[in-house]
What does this fold into?
Amino acid sequence: MAPRHALGIDFGGTKLLAAVVDTDTGEVVATAKKKSSAQDRPEELMGRLYDAGEAALKAAKLKPPQISGIGVGIAGQVDADRGILLGTPNLSQATVDLPMAKLLRERFGVPAALRNDVQIAALGELHFGAGRGVADFLCVFVGTGVGGAIVRDGRILTGASGSAGEIGHLVVDAGGRLCGCGGHGHLEAYASRTAITRSLLGDLKRGRKTTLRDLLPDLDQQDAPGGTAIRSGILAKAVKAGDELTTETVREAARYLGLGIASAINLLNPQRVVLGGGVIEAVDLLFDVAARYARQESLPTPARSVEIVRAGLGDNAGVVGAALLGAGA
Ligand SMILES: [Zn+2]
It folds into this structure.
């Protein structure tokens, strides 16, 4: 009998989550967490993967032969066919062309595969989350950046070189703000947590009154090099407290998010748009306003039929999708 468990690893911007997942039910059986660091060299990056994977297996009381495989979702550019991590500037600047799947196979003795983290989260949503039973949908995740993935006929669309679905780099403002990718006016430069943080810190410097000063006493000393200064939970608290500046800033980000989604709806005519990620989960206002603009600004026919919903798996989408990849889904 084939093993019903697989190991899924979600290697995100600031942390690494490994989980043993029952791939028949999507149930997360055991997890282990590690921090990640942009200063990591390739061997340190692999060391963190091994440690987290082994800790999750130990917590599940399983040995490597008892799992069907290992899948990794990673925030970086990936050659999925060859199992190679091409580069991941946010996780490890020193790592290029790392044969991650091969190294994992050698270490654990089971099949291993890797993919872009957002496509992996969409795979989780497709099988056990808000995309279950839906053949054509679009996933949009708002966090440090804005990620997206397209499911077409029940499969993740990869495109000619693996980058299909990058909704964060749709142009929403011609010649606008500089994006992290070097382009201008891209959605991510307006709607990500990094963008929201940057905008808020700018207004604070100009002396705007805000309850954020009470929620984050050392705010004035903070800068946002990685854009991680203001967490989603703090944004949610400030909006709930009726803070004018935060509410205004979130609304503006949501408007751009909605415009980007409207463009994607016009292009793809999906049955459903699944919205997830830390900021969406924490801040209802972002979801509500984005969904309204997405409907308002898309063509009448696709706007009438599209359902805009929240992601179903929360933080677990990545590890569940990764485990499914490891199991050969
Ligand atoms: Zn961009």
User: Anything to note?
Assistant: DSSP finds twelve helices and 13 strands in the chain.
